[in-house]
Structures are given as C-alpha cells and as structure tokens.
Design brief:
Number of strands: 9
Number of domains: 2
Order of helices and strands: EHHEEEEEHEHHHEHEH
Helix content: 25-40%
Largest sheet: 7 strands, mixed
InterPro entries: RNase_H-like, RNase_H-like_dom_plant, RNaseH-like_sf, RNaseH_domain
Radius of gyration: 18 Å
Number of helices: 8
CATH class of the largest domain: Alpha Beta
Protein name: RNase H type-1 domain-containing protein
C-alpha cells in the first residue's frame, strides 16, 4: 500500500523532472512492496527480466523457486527524509519509537516513550503523529513514513463507523491528515526486519517514564550499530 503526495513539481511548479530520481523512486517503491510481500513473482510473470534491474534479488527465476530473501532498509530519494515508526510491548507496557534519517542514511533525530492505556490502533497512530510532529518542528517537507506490515491495517484503514466506534482514532487520523496536507508525504509498509531501528527504540520506549527526543549522542548503542548497518546496505535475513 502506497499513498503518494505525488511528483507534482514538474507539472505545477515548473521544476524540471530528474529522470534518475524518478527511476530511483520507482525502484524504491517496488522494492519496498516486494519486501513487504504485497507483490510477488507472479506480478512479474511476463517481465521477469526486469527483476534484477529493480533490485529484487534472492530469487531463482528459472526454476521458479523463491528462496529466503534479504531485507534491506532502503534510503529515501534525494531531498527526502524517512521516518520509521514502530510499537513494542514489554511487560504489558506499550512503547513507541521512531527515527528520522536523510537520503544518505544519516540519523537526524528520534523519539521513544510509553503509550499508556492504549491499544495497537491508537498506539500506531499516535506514533505516526509523534514522528510527523517532529519532522514539522524541523521544517521537513518531503517525508517517507514507513510502518511495519503487521500494523498496516491499523495505520491506514478507516471504517465508515470509525467516529462512532473509536472517536479517539478518528481524531488522531484527522491530525495525521492535517500533517499530510502540509507536507509531501508517502506512506509505505515494510517487513518487520526492515524496521529494526524503530523497533529497538520502541522496546526502549516501553521502559521510559515519558516521551523523549533522542539526539544522536543519546542513542542506545545497539541502535547506533543498526543505523550504520542500514547506511551501508547490510541486509537482514
């Protein structure tokens, strides 16, 4: 599932399109969908030759046998920032965590903290709002938000009776929509392994007393290591 604000600069703002950026954006989106199992080999039945060019590897195309594939955290396009968010529950306490990185994979800022008295639906929407609010405070406009595939329904599905059944979620999503309208946002779902940094921060967040912002100097050592691995493209298996 991908919600794009769109590459509208060329059409509406008179800014020339960069063909390499467009190609990288397409590869980025297709690779993410494939990693999250939202598309598969059958979608490439008549164009399997394109898989390698799209960066999809770990598959025996000739025999039609799908091997376990490596999951790689993908950097956002140039001039974009990526916000990864996640939830974790430790000892019955739900925590959230998230981090912002630039197109080179460098860490900008993150957050972590508990989400008391919340269920998963409320929690993941609150985590997204925390992250978008942090991006807004840093005057970031071009944002790619990544959420684990297990939270996709909770993060992106809104029923017609949402206002009646869970007004808190309704208003949280209205807040998210307000941020999206003020930014150029993409929402992507990713395999859990590809969200390791945010997942580790969320586990730490469940042990904290309140929500905190995390400068690079205050990052837990394991997260620093994961960020460096993501930066150079080391895969998760």
């Amino acid at each position: 599932m991908v919600f794009m604000a769109g590459e509208d600069n060329a059409r509406y703002n008179g800014i020339a399109m960069n063909h390499l950026r467009v190609i990288n954006n397409v590869k980025f989106k297709i690779g993410t969908l494939f990693s999250a199992n939202l598309i598969s080999l059958k979608n490439f039945k008549n164009c399997s030759f394109a898989l390698e060019g799209l960066g999809i590897t770990g598959t025996d195309i000739v025999k039609g046998v799908r091997h376990p594939k490596a999951i790689i955290w993908m950097k956002p396009p140039v001039n974009y920032f990526k916000l990864n968010v996640d939830l974790a529950t430790i000892d019955s306490v739900m925590g959230c965590g998230g981090l912002i990185r630039d197109s080179n994979g460098y860490y900008i800022l993150g957050f972590a903290g508990p989400i008391p008295n919340s269920d998963v639906i409320v929690g993941i929407n609150q985590a997204i709002i925390y992250g978008l609010r942090l991006c807004s405070s840093l005057d970031m406009i071009n944002i790619v938000v990544e959420v684990c595939s297990i939270f996709a329904d909770q993060a992106f599905t809104m029923n017609d009776n949402c206002m009646d059944t869970c007004p808190k979620v309704f208003y949280l999503r209205c807040d998210i929509k307000n941020f999206v309208n003020a930014m150029k946002c993409s929402f992507l779902v990713v395999n859990t392994n590809g969200n390791a940094c945010a997942s580790t921060l969320a586990k730490w967040g469940s042990t904290l007393g309140s929500l905190i912002h995390i400068p690079v100097a205050a990052l837990p050592f394991p997260v620093k290591g994961l960020i460096e691995l993501d930066k150079i493209g080391i895969p998760y298996v």
